[in-house]
């Protein structure tokens, strides 16, 4: 039986969904976008802009919808046909930078060293009394920490007149305060951890700072005697403090040649100024100043 | 400029936590601001664009003395106060009539901006047709090869995608594909032509249509469009590109969101899944095999000697 004729008739009832394009379109289905790089007809664009744009866009949208319908489709109850979108290809900038991971807490550091792994506990727990699954903690929960006990057996070695219920309540309060203290300590450590890191980085710098500080303190201590440390016996191997010395005097008996050279240098400096011995400008200024 | 708030109750704590940087981000908020002087065209354009982007957009109606290309600080303040990372500033002056500046922020600082002039505008209310429902994700069509070649157009494309994309969804209902935004670029490449201030070149047509799907006898439906939303003819004016290093940091994908590489498993040409197992090198000399005395290696002399010995014995 030749069904092709009937198929053709059926097909001709509906409008075609095929579109011919010279350059195939690029798609980014995560964003439901299509990028068409085909050349546009400039004259049509100028004369009948809106109509041309409408037909051109219709073609592009048809191709995009065809592409979307090729993705995996599932039909969800009460909602309809749902199509699964792939991940986005185009790089779109974020609005805020990536978050930095928190520094590890005391327990996390300990667990890492010891190799203790976290055991994920289930949210629901089977309550024997009620005979059903209740949340482990929180509203309508199991409360297995003993806060809502209706009967507490008195242990053998305990005082018979002691109130066991208050004992449980006090123990819970202690646990809460300890937990809070630990939480606050973790927060403080997380904050100061960064400053500690900076200190560690410049350990060498810190050491050097300490050394100069020490030297300063020593020199201050040395001069804080009645006669400003002048008549103290110098300690062997200690560098003498030449801080307060302002002028250096040459010894009277020294090298004659050196003395001669020094004196001639002074003379050259005076005469060498291109024949001028007197700086007229300076002399006038000084005269003015004096008068 | 903004003082850091320390939360005093749970509600403020929740709001601050929402505004914190996260691996998977919230939908970007956009603010629509008016400059010191605006025209009716600009006002309508701002309100229409705000309606297109219904959720997470704030339309301010008061005029502000704000010049984005000159001064960053007031802009940064507005955006960080409203926790917005997208903005549109509308203004009107003799030099730049019917001006719109689209821009983005990253980390509280300006990332990039594009200034466009509106040459022809038709508002949503002027076009009498059925409008789409609120908050739907639009389809995008970018026509023209300028969007691949010109740096300005590439930035504009990126910005339009960022502005109107809505929520990041893994799957979408077919009936939710209601409207399409079509952006067409004509004119010569602005980058190559340095004297590109010609009025006939460099136009961008912004059109919005609703999609009607009809049966086609095949899997995909036949599409018909009807013009719905605002229609603008833009002309590109100034641009401010993002600095490369900042853009790199902004487009960084965290390791957790990158697709995981599966090692040692491939699919061969026939379509079978093939896996590789890497066994270490074996020292074949030290292999422990079954000992068969008969297969022991012997030389020819040994063989004849043995035979003769056996004969003598017997």
From TrEMBL, chain A:
Region span, Disordered: 176-203, 230-252
Any one cellular-component term (Gene Ontology): nucleus
Primary location class: nucleus
GO process terms (BP): ribosome biogenesis
Cross-referenced Pfam families: RRS1
Keywords for the protein's UniProt record, in alphabetical order: Nucleus, Ribosome biogenesis
Source organism superkingdom: Eukaryota
Cell location: Nucleus
InterPro entries, A to Z: Ribosom_reg
Function: Involved in ribosomal large subunit assembly.
Family: Belongs to the RRS1 family.
Protein's name according to its UniProt entry: Ribosome biogenesis regulatory protein
UniProtKB/TrEMBL annotation, chain B:
Domain spans labelled Brix: 28-245
Record keywords: Nucleus
Organism of provenance: Gigaspora margarita
Annotated PROSITE patterns: BRIX
Highest taxon, organism lineage: Eukaryota
Lineage of origin: Eukaryota, Fungi, Fungi incertae sedis, Mucoromycota, Glomeromycotina
UniProt-listed GO biological process terms: maturation of LSU-rRNA from tricistronic rRNA transcript (SSU-rRNA, 5.8S rRNA, LSU-rRNA); ribosomal large subunit assembly
Name by which UniProt lists this protein: Ribosome production factor 2 homolog
GO cellular component: nucleolus
């Amino acid at each position: 039986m030749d069904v092709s004729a009937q198929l053709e008739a059926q097909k001709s009832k509906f409008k075609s969904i095929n579109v011919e394009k010279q350059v195939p379109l690029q798609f980014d289905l995560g964003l439901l976008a299509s990028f068409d790089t085909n050349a546009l007809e400039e004259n049509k664009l100028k004369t009948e802009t809106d109509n041309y744009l409408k037909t051109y866009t219709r073609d592009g949208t048809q191709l995009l919808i065809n592409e979307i319908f090729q993705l995996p489709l599932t039909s969800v109850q009460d909602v309809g046909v749902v199509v699964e979108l792939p991940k986005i290809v185009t790089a779109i900038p974020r609005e805020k930078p990536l978050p930095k991971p928190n520094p590890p807490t005391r327990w996390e550091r300990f667990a890492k060293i010891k190799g203790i792994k976290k055991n994920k506990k289930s949210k629901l727990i089977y309550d024997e009394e009620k005979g059903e699954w209740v949340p482990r903690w929180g509203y309508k929960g199991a409360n297995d920490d003993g806060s809502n006990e209706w009967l507490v057996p008195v242990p053998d070695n305990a005082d018979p007149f002691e109130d066991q219920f208050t004992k449980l309540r006090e123990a819970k309060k202690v646990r809460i305060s300890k937990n809070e203290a630990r939480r606050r300590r973790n927060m403080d450590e997380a904050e100061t951890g960064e400053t500690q890191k900076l200190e560690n980085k410049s350990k060498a710098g810190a050491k050097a700072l300490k050394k100069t500080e020490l030297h300063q303190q020593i020199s201050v201590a040395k001069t804080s005697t009645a006669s400003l440390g002048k008549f103290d016996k110098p300690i062997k191997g200690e560098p003498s403090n030449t801080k307060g010395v302002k002028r250096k005097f040459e010894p009277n008996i020294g090298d004659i040649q050196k003395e001669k050279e020094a004196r001639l240098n002074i003379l050259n400096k005076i005469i060498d100024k291109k024949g001028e011995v007197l700086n007229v400008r300076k002399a006038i200024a000084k005269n003015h100043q004096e008068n | 400029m903004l003082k850091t708030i320390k939360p005093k109750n749970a509600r403020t704590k929740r709001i601050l936590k929402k505004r914190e940087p996260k691996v998977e981000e919230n939908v970007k908020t956009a603010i629509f601001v008016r400059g010191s002087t605006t025209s009716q065209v600009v006002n309508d354009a701002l309100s229409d664009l705000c309606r297109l982007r219904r959720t997470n957009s704030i339309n301010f109606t008061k005029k502000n003395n704000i010049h984005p290309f000159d001064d960053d600080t007031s802009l940064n303040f507005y955006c960080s106060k409203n926790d917005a990372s997208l903005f549109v500033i509308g203004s009107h002056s003799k030099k730049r009539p019917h001006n719109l500046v689209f821009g983005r922020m990253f980390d509280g600082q300006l990332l990039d901006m594009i200034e466009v002039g509106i040459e022809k505008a038709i508002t949503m209310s002027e076009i009498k047709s059925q409008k789409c429902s609120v908050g739907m994700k639009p389809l995008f069509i970018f026509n023209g090869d300028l969007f691949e070649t010109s740096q300005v157009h590439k930035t504009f494309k990126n910005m339009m995608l960022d502005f109107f994309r809505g929520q990041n969804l893994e799957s979408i209902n077919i009936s939710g594909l209601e409207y399409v935004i079509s952006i067409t670029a004509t004119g010569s490449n602005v980058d190559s032509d340095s004297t590109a201030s010609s009025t006939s070149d460099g136009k961008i047509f912004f059109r919005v249509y609703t999609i009607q799907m009809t049966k086609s006898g095949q899997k995909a439906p036949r599409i018909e469009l009807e013009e719905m939303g605002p229609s603008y003819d833009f002309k590109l004016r100034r641009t401010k590109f993002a600095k490369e290093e900042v853009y790199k940091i902004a487009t960084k994908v965290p390791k957790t969101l990158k697709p995981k590489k599966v090692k040692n498993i491939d699919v061969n040409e026939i379509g079978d899944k093939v896996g590789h197992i890497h066994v270490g090198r074996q020292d074949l000399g030290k292999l422990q095999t079954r000992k068969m005395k008969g297969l022991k290696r012997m030389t020819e002399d040994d063989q004849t000697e043995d035979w003769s010995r056996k004969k003598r014995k017997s």
